[in-house]
Amino acid sequence: MPLYDTAASGGIESYIRLVWLFTFSITVLTLLLCYLYLRIKKTRKREQLSREFSYLVIEELEIERARISRELHDTVLPLVRGESVSDSIRLICINLMPPDFTRLSLKESLAMLCAQFSGRSGIECACSIEENFNFSAVGAETQLHLYRMIQEALNNIEKHSKAKRSSLTVRKDTRSSFENIIICVSDDGVGIQNLSAENEGLGMRSIRQRAAIIGANVDFISESENGLMVRIEYTPSNLNEEQPNG
After folding, report:
1. pLDDT tens digits, residue range 53-67?
2. 207-221, pLDDT tens digit by residue?
3. Is residue 151 a contact partner of residue 191, using CB atoms and an 8 Å limit?
4. Minimal CA–CA distance to 192: which of 220, 233, 154?
5. Which residues have C-beta within 8 Å of that of residue 34, sequence separation ≥ 6?
6. For position 181, which CATH number holds?
7. How many other CB atoms are there within 10 angstroms of residue 124's CB atom?
8. Do 71 and 180 lie in a common domain?
9. What is the pLDDT of residue 33?
10. Which domain holds residue 187?
11. pTM
């Protein structure tokens, strides 16, 4: 066989091997990408189902809270004679019932929530909501979630913090082009040692669940003996949300 025929044959074999190697690599890469896509899709589906389940649970919880509040107010309260007990039951009814955002804006409801918390617990609560701030870009359902998250954070302060002072701050994030809403609830209490998902209480998990439902980010920032801050960041994104009075 002539030398050039041998060289040509060897070149063709090398070319075929490269083609097969390239084809094999592309096939493996394609299968890997398909696998990763399916895993991501499955994970997102699981997260979506988890959010939907949490939403249904919390929706039923709100319905049950309203029912219990009405039962206490209409059935139990008329039977009570002691003024202090009556006041306690009225307070429970107020806390259980969702705010009426058609009558009071979320801004006014939060100011009232802080005043009630301070009067009940004896813990000073400074409420600072940015001047001219409103929640017009936030639907009523999301407003309720934000209200409940703040309410839960204040309840945790009352139950666990041993604080003397607390604060609620609501402002817009001027560094963001999306007009993010920043909400911070903080106290000067004992804080939480070794803060992690494993030792979060029911109240903190409830806050995380509500945050996941509305697509907000929540952080618990704590130093031992230096209080706890609950920081919520929410980006109004659904322009088709119902526009309540804000």
Report:
1. 666 666 777 777 777
2. 998 998 899 999 999
3. no
4. 220
5. none
6. 3.30.565.10
7. 15
8. no
9. 78
10. 102-234
11. 0.69
Measured CA to CA, the distance from residue 233 to residue 213 in angstroms comes to 13
The reported pLDDT for the residue numbered 49 is: 60
Full strand arrangement of the beta sheet holding 181-187: 124-129, 165-172, 181-187, 228-234, 217-222
One domain, residues 112 and 230? yes
Q: Kindly state the average pLDDT of the residues 1-19.
A: 62
Question: Is 239 among the domain residues?
Answer: no
Which pLDDT score, from 0 to 100, does residue 121 have? 92
Residue with tokens 């802080």: 114
Question: How far is residue 81's CA from residue 94's CA, in Å, rounded to a whole number?
Answer: 19
Q: Which CA distances in Å does 241 have to 64, 123, 141, 148, 174? A: 25, 36, 9, 19, 23
Q: pLDDT value at position 222?
A: 85
Query: Which amino acid, one-letter code, is at 202?
Result: L
Please compute Rg for the chain using Cα positions: 28
Residue 242 lies in a domain: no
